[in-house]
Amino acid sequence: MFSTLFHIPSQIGSGDNSLPLFGWGVLLGVWAVFGGALLAWTARRHGLRSSVSALGMPLAIAGLMIFWLLPSLDDGQGVPVRGYGVMLLLAATAAIWLSIARGRSIGFDADTLLALGMEVFVWGILGARLFYVIEYHTHFFPPGRSLPESLLDAINIPAGGLVVFGSLPTAAFAAWRFSKRRGLPLMRLADCIAPGLLLGLAIGRIGCFLNGCCYGGQCDLPWAVQFPPESPPWLDQVAHKLLDPVAQASGVPPWSLAVHPAQLYAALDAALLSLLAVCYAPLARRDGEVFALVLTLHPISRLLLESIRVDESPAFNTSLSISQLVSLLLLCCAATLWWWLARQPLERGARIGAADAAAGTGL
């Protein structure tokens, strides 16, 4: 676990010559210059309306974070840079890179996929965070806590707390809206980005490991891990009286009991599924089959992985967690999608598969 990587100082320089970095500071000026240049460059290629539609919201959110969110996160040492947040950014970068590499040979230019990636990332994060806040609402809105404090905690995404399945409705809506606005075939677009989404998920799960969330149950396997005091697994074991209370009260409290590194299991699972989706692409006979494969296999693996995790309680008077129930729902959606695809005309050497095979990139 490595929750905080380092702190960013909130001031540049010292004494009377210091300048604020956040709020009405240097970073906001950099955002204005960079955002304006990016909008102008995109407007020249795709028109002002399309540029504002694709980049307006991400840039506005970034500006709001610089002006209001980052100053509010200052803990006296500066703004903490969380390992979880860094891995999220790396995950988005990797997902967009793989999508661009695959899309270049099938008619999707880099600008289009970059704009799509930004929209899907922002809307996906919002959906994943909203799902998490709703699921754990008692943590964010406990009795006696002021509403501004609760809201600030709820939007503090770099500190951790996302539910992957919560991102699906908002990300899917963003992709559908983008495809309609640009006149792009939705199923082919879904095939193009599906492996990238899994690659991003694999990297994001490493962020979960650094943050200590999404942890597994106790085990004595050689690769079992222990987490430090005040980490989520440690707090959970303290709450269930699994740790020695005498040792807890000592000057150096013990680390958690050994648990499954469920986050790393999930990272490996997502990486392998991403590779499988890429390898299946040349065999796909219709647009949409790669996405349908991902929509089938990921819920199955999630059902199995959830049996190792202990951070989620059973939901709706069942023995299954909320993620397992959503997985079952997604499997029904996958079956429906396969049925619909089977009724579509065969596309011998579907574009995405044929393009990957012809390019010989293996991407």
Can you characterise this structure?
This protein has helices at residues 26-46, 48-72, 83-103, 110-135, 137-140, 147-154, 164-182, 186-211, 232-239, 245-249, 262-280, 289-306, 322-342, 351-359; strands spanning 4-8, 11-12, 19-20, 79-82. By secondary structure, the protein is mostly helical. It has a domain at 81-217 and 260-359. The strands form two sheets. Strands 1-4 form a two-stranded antiparallel sheet. Strands 2-3 form a two-stranded antiparallel sheet. The longest helix is centred in the middle third of the chain and has 26 residues, at 110-135.
Please, how many helices? 14
Alpha-beta content class: mainly alpha
**Percent in strands:** under 5%
- Mean of pLDDT: 86
Q: In terms of per-residue confidence, which ranges show pLDDT below 50 for 5 or more consecutive residues?
A: none
Quaternary structure of the protein: single chain
The SSE string, one letter per element, is: EEEHHEHHHHHHHHHHHH
Distance between the termini: 32 Å
Gyration radius from CA atoms, angstroms: 22 Å
- The level of helicity is 55-70%
Give a quick summary of the entry.
The chain has helices at residues 26-46, 48-72, 83-103, 110-135, 137-140, 147-154, 164-182, 186-211, 232-239, 245-249, 262-280, 289-306, 322-342, 351-359, and strands at 4-8, 11-12, 19-20, 79-82. It has 363 residues and is mostly helical. Helices cover 63% and strands 4% of the residues.
What is the secondary structure topology, with strand pairs?
Elements lengths: L3 E5 L2 E2 L6 E2 L5 H21 L1 H25 L6 E4 H21 L6 H26 L1 H4 L6 H8 L9 H19 L3 H26 L20 H8 L5 H5 L12 H19 L8 H18 L15 H21 L8 H9 L4
Antiparallel strand pairs: 1-4, 2-3
